[in-house]
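Async update (no meeting this week)

Hi team, since we skipped the sync, here's where things stand on the single-chain job. The sequence we agreed to prioritize is pasted below, unchanged from the tracker. I ran it this morning and attached the output directly underneath so nobody has to dig for it. Comments welcome in thread, and please keep replies under the output.
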Amino acid sequence: MNGFAMQVKDGTARTIPLEDALTADGALVWIHLHGEEPALRPWLEGVAGLPAWVIDPLVAVETRPRCTAIENGAFVNLRGLSPDDLATSDPLASVRLYAAAGRVFSVTRHRLTAMPAVREEVEQAQVADPGDLIVAFAEEITGELDPLVADLGDTLDDCEGELSADRVFELRRIVSRARIQAIGYRRFLSPQRAALEKLSALPGDWLGADDRLHIAAAADQAARMAEELEAIRERAALIHETLTDLRAEQIDQRSLQIAIVAMVFLPLTFLTGLLGMNVEGIPFAHAPWAFAGVIGVCILLAAGITGWFVHRHWLNRAS
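Output:
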């Protein structure tokens, strides 16, 4: 079985074999397993002896943040950043924890960036009980997500300050990426806030008063990030609409420019086409000044039509 186990006893932390962790005692015995292992469920059933209602949420493939009281403990599912390449619609990896007095089982299917920091805290005996371990996970996860959410807001701030019809396509790609990320994060942060709030209010003496305060603080931070992500999503939609309007305005201006040019040359095309007919009777066809005269008339027509557009301020609208 791929995983590790740690024991915190008498203020000292040490790594122990998985099999020994099942019978070990202490303030905290933490057993962590990797969910991709095919032998995970048989090991939890046959070796660890956990009941089915604990194993099912630990090995579930599709999960969302939640907290459920189980006998004298609780099952907690949290979502955090992962160094693995995850789907855009599912950008956060899960850590499933079953905690009871003195013992925690945790399972991950993907690597969790918060895991090394949490494990280091346990190794340094800064985590003394199951409540402290859940607090460590909650604080590390929210601490990692906070700057990312702030960066998304800063990205939209930059886009709002650089709105220009010349950068419509570039800005639209940036805004779309920020909006997709915000939607993906918010999908899990909102239920994660509810899960942490429920956990802080669960009965039981395995959660200390300080643990409940830290969990409630992490829930508040998750709530703030969820609200900011909702604002980012709405701002991204407004910026996208503004960029669409700028693009439509740019297209209208170019269409007007084309229309003005066409209106200038339309009578000239009619005149030159009329005089270019290969029939008898074209006036002044043999006069030496006829060509220059036609050119002059065309220039006067073009100047007159252009002057009319200037008088009507059409050229200002086309620029």
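Quick observations from my side:
Strands lie at 3-9, 12-16, 28-34, 66-70, 73-80, 93-100, 103-108.
DSSP finds nine helices and seven strands in the chain.
Reply here if anything looks off.
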